[in-house]
Amino acid sequence: xxxxxxxxxxxxxxxxxxxxxxxxxxxxxxxxxxxxxxxxxxxxxxxxxxxxxxxxxxxxxxxxxxxxxxxxxxxxxxxxxxxxxxxxxxxxxxxxxxxxxxxxxxxxxxxxxxxxxxxxxxxxxxxxxxxxxxxxxxxxxxxxxxxxxxxxxxxxxxxxxxxxxxxxxxxxxxxxxxxxxxxxxxxxxxxxxxxxxxxxxxxxxxxxxxxxxxxxxxxxxxxxxxxxxxxxxxxxxxxxxxxxxxxxxxxxxxxxxxxxxxxxxxxxxxxxxxxxxxxxxxxxxxxxxxxxxxxxxxxxxxxxxxxxxxxxxxxxxxxxxxxxxxxxxxxxxxxxxxxxxxxxxxxxxxxxxxxxxxxxx
Length: 361
Description:
Layout: H1 3-17, E1 22-25, E2 32-35, E3 38-41, H2 49-56, H3 62-71, E4 74-80, E5 84-93, E6 96-104, H4 111-114, H5 118-121, E7 129-135, H6 141-155, E8 159-164, E9 177-182, H7 190-198, E10 204-207, H8 213-224, E11 228-234, H9 238-247, H10 251-264, E12 265-275, E13 281-289, H11 292-299, H12 306-312, H13 321-330, H14 336-342, H15 346-360
Parallel strand pairs: 7-11, 7-12, 8-9, 8-10, 10-11
Antiparallel strand pairs: 1-2, 1-6, 2-3, 4-5, 5-6, 12-13
Helix pairs in contact: 1-2, 7-8, 8-10, 9-10, 10-11, 13-15
């Protein structure tokens, strides 16, 4: 084994042994690991960009290596037998190579372990339509998506195809059969993989992330024609998750895609991670089950009214961020002060917390 690969493997073994989340390799800094309570050095010597590049390049897939040579940034999966799987992001900063490498969990999380509201689990029982999961980077979107997919796999007899770059969670066949397509290794890009998937008679299609208009258009069309399509977007709330899709298209096509999206969309879940009192982090979420009113607002591009639709469709399973936060406080997962800081409507949350406290008396 080349010395550079051996060195990277030693760092990653230390990451796994210490139950850290990420290995960070930054020029002019020592190798360090991100833990729940911060970042800690695991070496004294400062790394150069050349050393980082030499250590990480051999671990990239051929597709990742080609992307890095073309664009100076690449994502790739990496496996060390007996240690674990990792997601590598090799990029440049101040003209030098840098890397963030995340340890991927060996076990799939359950919906119960994530402490998401029970209504989220009902998304796994949908038969068709588009389900979007939004949130900022590092909000646990991929983890929630994997948990939903595992819920389908364990309870339904369906043909599932996932399209990811790279594959993060590995699924075994339980009641469903699961095909996992990795961009670069199995298909050149998302649109090509998605078109191919539609010819393979899937019941469920998972698109790891919708990055471009072509992928978005194919995914919306697939949801309209009877497939259940699940995907993620880097957004902050329900309205921005929907607008991200329409705004990705040229102005002359935006009205058409809004009409299609209004028909295809079934649910929008957005989430953010908060520090848990019991260690780790826990997601607070907001869910809109799309009904007649929401479809009309999407068609008219009146997305500012979607928050009202969450309240109107509570009987269908929708819930607000404040309701999710109140539940996490009541169950002693998060601090009241943390919940109030993240709430969109702190006064509403205070009212919910007061009702909850009064009920317990």
